[in-house]
Design a protein that fits this description.
Belongs to the timeless family. This protein has 13 helices and 2 strands. With 340 residues, it is mostly helical.
Amino acid sequence: MDEDVSDIDFEEQLAQEYEREHLNKNNQEDENEDDEVEISKNDVQMKEKKEKESQLRDSRLSRIQQMNDNKAVFESDAEKTLKSQILLLCTALGGLEITSGEYQLGSDALACLKDIKKWIRMVDDEKHNWDVASACDDNELFVGDLVPILIQLPKKINDTNKDSYTNIMLTALELMVLLTRPLMLDVEKADIHRIELYAKLKKAQVVYKNAVLNTSKGRCFKSIVSLALPILAMPRDQRSRRDLIILNLCLTFFKNIIRIEPADFSVSSNKTTTKIQRVNSNLPTGISREDISYDTLFHVYQKNKVLVFIQTIAAGIPKEFDVRLLGATVITTPHDTNTN
């Protein structure tokens, strides 16, 4: 009887071991299937991302091509090459998704921003013209890319992407400063091409001012102030030269926006037109004087902590902040150059 019981126990143990092995095998197969599903999901997501980037690229290229077709006949080969380079960089930078309205960065967004900045330095600054600034306007870089980047990127920052996203925002701010610089024109010496380009870019800058003041209630400014807040919290002896340059960038941009006004003349030589009418005629379509007024600007600056930021800097000179780097960045209006 004992032998029979032993035999039965042994058989049961074998059966249990078989069941365990079979169960482990099934679990391993399930895990492998889960891994395959996860890999498949990643592949689908990557494919969807590439398709979205391709759609954004095609949409932008088509829109810009249509806009430039009528101008291409009168452009030199050098101008066409330059515009093509800026178009490619703006396209690769990213764009707004049609469905969600969210800005989608391209895979080499930071490099694109830096390359556009190099073109401005190399062509506009060294040759004293505005060809790159004009190409940036043609490609809607400021309104279509830089403003959305500064408004939307802060919400997406986490511990993993903080450094790269902050660098993208800072480089975008550098470009915004370059594209909003005061435009100087000697009407007596300028040829008709330069005068027309001046009028075009003065209108473009009014569009830029309207965009930063009225898009998402001026939240672009809050994002810019947020770039400077960690620096303000540092003791003076811990701030690097780069930190002071960032503060200077912020102040310069705020000053540039204040000083943007429509051109005070038109290309037309109609002498019967009054000065006020000529100024109004240089307002871009869809933008009113109220949209860019000092009341609007003051309200947006106050709401988005710009005024507090400026007051903090001003109160800290020279004790907290280096007057050599920041003291020259004085906030002035076009009508009162003595206003600090």
